[in-house]
What we know:
- This protein is of the alpha/beta class.
- It has 13 helices and 9 strands.
- It has a 9-stranded parallel β-sheet, with helices on one face.
Amino acid sequence: MLKLMYITKSPDVARLAESAGVDRIFADMEFIGKDQRQGGLDTVQNHHTVADVRRLRQVLTKAELLVRVNPIHDALPDYMSSKDEIDAVIEAGADILMLPYFKTAEEALTFIRLVDGRARTMLLLETPEAAERVDEILAVPGIDEIHIGLNDLSLGYGRRFMFELLADGTVERLCRKFCEKGIPYGFGGIASPGKGALSAEYIIREHYRLGSGCVILSRSFCDTAKVTDLDAIRDTFARGVAEIRAVERACREESDSFFSDNRQELCRRVQMISERIAAAK
């Protein structure tokens, strides 16, 4: 089964997600450089804090606490250095730390040395530079997990739609390399089955085919900026997680030809969506 991750700083929402079966609550502290590379796009920029991490830690009993820190950086006039940030997040109770937007093996090694075995490490591979240097990066010792960030990686490659990287073989190439190294991996995000620009069931089946073990529940899965009633949020999580698990269970009974057909249909739909986006510009 996929480990499901959901981004929130709300202890109330975290409790509801955990009770519905979400495996990891995801605090997102990344802000350095994010506005410049995603400026003008409809993307989520959270800028959670160490205090948010500490509050989440206090309410979680089963789900792991994952924290995305900032890319490797020196101290800024109004913000601490990577070392101080990582120390603070670990002290606040993070189980897993995620390094975003790295480009080199040196950055990955610096991150792992700063964590120093005090929490698990996850690399968020989301730059073309990192994708092209993946063999060098995978030689770095101490990588516990890797996640492919489709949004920024697709921007870096100049794609119109993030799932073009799933259709064109980029994700599969990277996943095969991770698998060869024995490093657990995942990619991208999903909405509930039947929802999303590319319906989530096609993506879930590709996760199964590629041996992926982790996925982010996207903003369209449960947008708490629009839905604020806690009972409605509880129902959304319970229903959505159950639907995802049902698709996963069905995958266990399917043949290789089923997954081949699913991939063909996924590629067809990705092309249609990409062409629609291009025509709208």
